[in-house]
Every structure is written in structure tokens, then in C-alpha cells.
Write a structure and sequence with these properties.
Elements: H1 20-33, H2 36-50, H3 52-59, H4 63-69, H5 78-88
Helix pairs in contact: 1-2, 2-5
Length: 100
């Protein structure tokens, strides 16, 4: 048996977010988790997919602030979250919670 070394690359979910539909499905899944940290991280992934420089320009926030706020350990303010969602074309809506 030969021992072949495998080269593994890091998977970046941002690479698969190439359409508004894919982004919407990705964010819907994040919102369904009801995990604030995961939702923030998912917004960061979408921002990277769209281009962090562009999002920084549209929001008036620095790229560093965006990366920090939407990292796995980030804790963005609601104002920052709404601002970024608007720049990403993601709408925050409310509806009655359906019983399980």
C-alpha cells in the first residue's frame, strides 16, 4: 500500500454564495438557528462573499470593524447588523412565531 499525502484546503462558505437566492437560503438557515453568534458569523460570511471593501464603503464602517463584529466571537450592535443587512440586500422581517 502506498501512502499518499492528501492536501486539504479550508472550505470557505462565502465561495458558494453566488446568487441572491443562495444568500437568502444561507441567512434563513442562520436565523432558524436562533443563535446570535452564528447569525453574526453568517452575516460576515455573506459580507465576504459580496466584498468586504464594498460593504465597508456602503455602511461607512471600516473593514476591520466589520471583520471583528461579524467574526465567530463578534457581537455586532443591532444598528451595525441592520446597516450591513441593508447593504447586503437582506431584509429583516417579522411574523408571528408558529407553535411547534
Amino acid at each position: 500500500m502506498t501512502d499518499m499525502a492528501e492536501k486539504l484546503t479550508t472550505f470557505d462558505p462565502a465561495e458558494g454564495l453566488t446568487s441572491d437566492e443562495a444568500i437568502a437560503a444561507f441567512m434563513a438557515e442562520a436565523f432558524a438557528s436562533e443563535d446570535a453568534g452564528y447569525i453574526a458569523h453568517a452575516l460576515g460570511v455573506v459580507a465576504r462573499a459580496k466584498g468586504m471593501t464594498q460593504i465597508a464603503s456602503e455602511t461607512g464602517l471600516s473593514r476591520e470593524q466589520l471583520y471583528r463584529s461579524f467574526s465567530e466571537n463578534g457581537n455586532p450592535t443591532l444598528k451595525t447588523t441592520i446597516c450591513v443587512m441593508k447593504a447586503l440586500g437582506i431584509e429583516l422581517t417579522a411574523r408571528p412565531h408558529s407553535a411547534p
